[in-house]
Specification:
single chain, alpha/beta, TIM Barrel, Lyase, Ornithine Decarboxylase, Chain A, domain 1, 2 domains, 11 helices, 18 strands, isomerase
Length: about 350
């Protein structure tokens, strides 16, 4: 019999969350970000469920080819562009959009024109570094990069313009408005489609709504903002990580639980063992007190997380039985709440769920 750990993926909730993006930014086309196996939810099932998406954004050529080979016909954007010029042939063949963020990529596109008798132009999104300071052309270098793309026969004309917001999750930061203003000062008068908004931009920064948005974490039901949960933005959880109690043990005051014996029973009590651990993607650094739902009742994690199991304090649930259902995050227990307790973010929780945890799509 298989282990009880499983990730239940609610595709109706996924579609609901995309509709929330459309409602918040009604004039923009929506390109759901489904990189990293759709944040751990399953690249292909997520793409196939989002039939209303205007396009998709991924991180690698390999992800894009999975979509194309499955018959996904919407535009697919490579968020980091291409890593080697040899990838351009596949990009042309499969009609993929690319981000151009570095001069070496410009050089490769210009070389492509010299190498091919008949060039199949690609759709390029020119990335502008307005303050993230990770990828993109500086404000001073954008004009030259734009001119080179406009003169390149390997590029569908005109290119698009994009940037990425660094602090949009924090309403108190002034940097987001500065980034938006800087982006619109770039190439004044140029007629080009533009893309700024990530999830936080879509839900919280009206000035970032442009021609194309790139919703990420909001699709999966988590809020992009500090100190919020998805429910605060009328989002629905898509992944519910479930398991079961596999043992219930009675201990005495002073008994030590788990590796290292770090947690000591304060009194005679029962402790439940749940079939989930860091081998499944549950955060190893989750401390004692991290909330867990057993039969819909919140109980605290106790002791260290091990590879295959965690222990929970059942003093508040005296009728618990082996086989009772457990929710680690998702329906009834926001991923953001668990993430804050564990010192991480919902993005990491979702992406960390390992391949040995089956995804059940409903």
């Amino acid at each position: 019999m298989s282990r009880a750990a499983r990730a239940v993926i609610d595709l109706d909730a996924l579609r609901h969350n995309l509709q929330r993006a459309h409602t918040a930014s009604p004039e923009a086309r929506q390109f759901p970000v489904i990189k990293a196996d759709a944040y751990g939810h399953g690249l292909l099932p997520v793409a196939q469920a989002l039939t209303d998406a205007d396009g998709f954004a991924v991180a690698s050529l390999e992800e894009a080819l999975v979509l194309r080979e499955a018959g996904i016909q919407q535009p697919v954007l490579l968020l980091e562009g291409f890593f080697h010029p040899d990838e351009l042939v596949n990009i042309q063949q499969h009609r993929l959009d690319i981000v151009v963020h570095h001069a070496a990529q410009l050089d490769a596109l210009e070389s492509l024109v010299r190498q091919q008798d008949i060039v199949k132009p690609v759709t390029v999104w020119l990335k502008v570094d307005t303050g993230m300071h990770r990828l993109g052309f500086s404000l001073e270098a954008v004009s030259d990069a734009w001119a080179r793309l406009r003169a390149c026969d390997a590029v569908n004309q005109p290119p698009r313009l994009m940037t990425h917001l660094a602090c949009a999750d924090d309403f108190h930061s002034t940097r987001t408005q500065q980034q938006i203003e800087s982006f619109y000062r770039v190439l004044p008068g140029v007629q080009a489609e533009r893309s700024i908004a990530n999830s936080a931009g879509i839900l919280g920064w009206l000035g970032s709504h442009a021609d194309i948005d790139r919703p990420g974490i909001l699709l999966y039901g988590a809020s992009p903002f500090l100190d919020e949960t998805g429910a605060d933005r009328r989002l629905r959880p898509v992944m519910t990580l479930r398991s079961e109690l596999i043992a219930i043990n009675a201990y005495q005051a002073g008994d030590r639980v788990g590796y290292g014996g770090r947690w000591v029973c304060p009194e005679a009590m029962t402790v439940g063992v749940v079939s989930i651990g860091y081998g499944d993607g549950y955060p190893r650094h989750a401390p004692t007190g991290t909330p867990v739902l057993v039969n819909g009742v919140e109980v605290p994690l106790v002791g260290r997380v091990s590879m295959d199991m965690i222990s929970v304090d059942l003093r508040g649930l005296p009728d618990a039985q082996v086989g009772d259902g457990v929710v680690l995050w998702g329906e009834g227990l926001p991923a953001e709440t668990v993430a804050r307790a564990a010192g991480t973010i919902a993005y990491e929780l979702f992406c960390s769920v390992t391949a040995r945890v089956p995804r059940n799509y409903v």
